[in-house]
Structures are given as structure tokens and as C-alpha cells.
Design brief:
The chain is mostly helical. The protein has six helices and no strands. The structure holds flavin-adenine dinucleotide.
Length: 135
Amino acid sequence: MLVAGDAAALLDHWSREGISYALRSGDLAGRAATRVLAAPDEEAVRAATDHYGRRIDEVLGAEMRASATLMRVFARNPALVHTALTRLPPMWRRLDAYIAGHSGVAEIMTTPLARAAAALGTALPARPAGGPPHG
Ligand SMILES: Cc1cc2nc3c(=O)[nH]c(=O)nc-3n(C[C@H](O)[C@H](O)[C@H](O)COP(=O)(O)OP(=O)(O)OC[C@H]3O[C@@H](n4cnc5c(N)ncnc54)[C@H](O)[C@@H]3O)c2cc1C
């Protein structure tokens, strides 16, 4: 069975954006289904479905892992993430590009500044929304 979109839990963990994930995985699933239908035997069917899994990881995996990291840090410390994204010009320029659809979360999270902020957010005590402010 080939699953795509929400059924395969494919989404941006941070923004909860799922439409482009559904479209991109649906496209890959359609191509994989064509290969499955043309497969002469069970081994070829397995190869086609395995290929689909690898393509999902290649195309969507890096984005999903980066957005999961960002979401973990955000859930622990939303004020820190908000401050990093709105007060540090290199970060908000990347956020702006992300919102405009010109880049992905993976691109934000691979910058040294974002990696440092994520490490700090993980090391600091958790301060979820509604908790006392830093100070
Ligand atoms: C309130 C809300 C707001 C959202 N806002 C955004 C947003 O702004 N941007 C964004 O990118 N994502 C958003 N999402 C997420 C986005 O809607 C989903 O990630 C996306 O629609 C997933 O597409 P899909 O094709 O996988 O599933 P769906 O869009 O859920 O399509 C599945 C279809 O299968 C049908 N179906 C189910 N079971 C059967 C069955 N047994 N037989 C036949 N048909 C069946 C369903 O009726 C449905 O039409 C939002 C989600 C919610 C709930």
C-alpha cells in the first residue's frame, strides 16, 4: 500500500502546512503506482514501493526533520524562538523567504545562528507559553 499526505503523517511540524506535502507525496505515489502496475513480479513491486519511501525521505525528510526540531524548541521555549525569528535580522530575512515560499525550514535551521538558538533552546529550562518570562 502507498500512503501519501496526511494519511502518511507528512506535514511541516512547525507551521502545520500539509497541502504541499500532500501534493508532492501524491505526485511521487502516483509515479510509484505506475511502476507497481508495470512490475513483472513481487520483487519488482517491493523495489517500486521501497523506492517511493526513499524518494519521500529525499524530497520531504530534511524539511520534516528540521521543522520537528524547530517545533520541539518552540514548544519548550516559544519566547526564545519568537525573539530569534523577529529580532535577529538574518533570521527574520530567512523567515520572510520561508513565508514567501522561497525557502524551507531546513534552510532556516541549517544556519549557524539557528543551530545555536536551537541548542540554547534545548539547554535552557523549558518555558512553555503562559509561563513566566525570562529575566
Ligand atoms: C482546519 C485546518 C486548516 C488547515 N490549514 C492549512 C493551511 O493553511 N495550509 C496547509 O498547507 N495545510 C493546512 N491544513 C492541512 C491540510 O489541509 C492537509 O495537510 C491536506 O489537506 C492533506 O491532504 P490529503 O490529500 O492528504 O488529505 P485530505 O485533504 O484530508 O483528503 C483526503 C480525502 O479522502 C477522503 N476520504 C477519506 N476516507 C475515504 C474513504 N474511505 N473513501 C474515499 N474517500 C475517503 C476525504 O473525504 C478527503 O476528501 C489544514 C488542516 C486543517 C484541519
